[in-house]
Every structure is written in structure tokens, then in C-alpha cells.
Amino acid sequence: MPTQQTEEIVKFLKENIEPLEDNTYGLGYRASVYLTDGTFLPCVIFRSPKTIVNLAIRRFKDEQKGNGIFSKSGGTGYYNIVKGFVTNGNNINYYDIDRVIKSKYSFPLAIQKQIKGETTMGWTGFSAKMKDGSYIGFGTRFNWEFFQMPENYSTDDIVEIINHSYVLGTGELRYHKVPELIPSEDYKNAVVFRERPFFECYLDEL
What we know:
Layout (H helix, E strand, L loop, with lengths): L5 H11 L12 E7 L4 E8 L2 H15 L12 H11 L9 E5 L7 H4 L11 E7 L4 E6 L17 E6 L1 E3 L5 E3 L16 E3 L4 E4 L4
Parallel strand pairs: 2-10, 5-9
Antiparallel strand pairs: 1-2, 1-3, 4-5, 4-6, 7-8
Helix pairs in contact: 2-3
């Protein structure tokens, strides 16, 4: 199979992937990719660079003028802002991609939108009801783009999100108290599938 060209990648993403909105980074197309050396990356988000580049330009200008949030941090504010934009994150080059496929770790957009609010500061716990009537518990500290899934299930098996809940090892559904400052005693017996790390790839054509 020949390596997909940029226009083929963009065409595949727009025709097969529902974009996830993000106020900071812009639209994101969640997929999986094979690199030209055969490496498989199960979680990759494709974005246009325009939104993040414009944000960087604004932040750089603010720091240079002394109006940024780090302007009083010992004179290193501008350096720290630039450092954050150019060294953070996991990025891949579009020309290292051989082909793009759907990711089995991204929730359908209609399901994703059902996840609401933090359970406690810095943590969101929720469960998913599956087509066979069983429940699977999930949790994340920050990232919502991809989640680990148990074997024999895919994200397409999810029919409903139950916010602020968890699932015990027995399969029983329980609910958090919101806000929950101290986890319930039985939470230590919960089975929680966590968020997955991901790579980003920027394409001017998106």
C-alpha cells in the first residue's frame, strides 16, 4: 500500500472523523497512524496550526510588554512562555506518516459530549453503559481525547455516559458524592480505565 499523501490524509480525516472542538487548540481529528518505519501510534490528534500559532504570538507579545501572567517571575516570563510552546507536547511530522486509520480509543463525539464537570478538583470520574448492559468505569485528571478500553469492547459499544460514577470489580455501578473531597471506602475496589497519552500532528490543510 503506497504512503498516503497529505491531501489523502486530510480527505480521510474530514470524511471519517468527527472533529473534537477545543477553545485553545482548535478542531482536533482523533485517529491512529502507522509511521513510515512501521511504528504504530494508537492515539494521534490532527490539527491546523493556525489557532495555536496565533495564541503563541499573542502570548509572546503580552510577555514582552510585561502584561503576561509570568511577567513578574524574575525576568524569565518571556523565556518560560517560549519554552512552553516549543518544548512541551508530543508532536510527529506529517511526512513521517505512512497511513492513517480510525482510533479505537476515541469516544464518538455524541458520547464525548455527555461527559460533564469535575467530580472533585483535578479529577473526573464517570462510567459508560455498554450495549450488553454492563458498565465500565473511567477517570481522568485532565485529558479527555482518548481512553483505554477493556478487551472485547470498543468505544462504539458505549450507549450512555453516567457522570460522577464508578464501577466496582464486581461490575456494580456506584456514585460519587459531588464535590467529593474524600473518596468512598469502596472506591479502592473500583476498576478505572484511564486517559491515554497522545501525539499531535499539525497540517496546514486542515
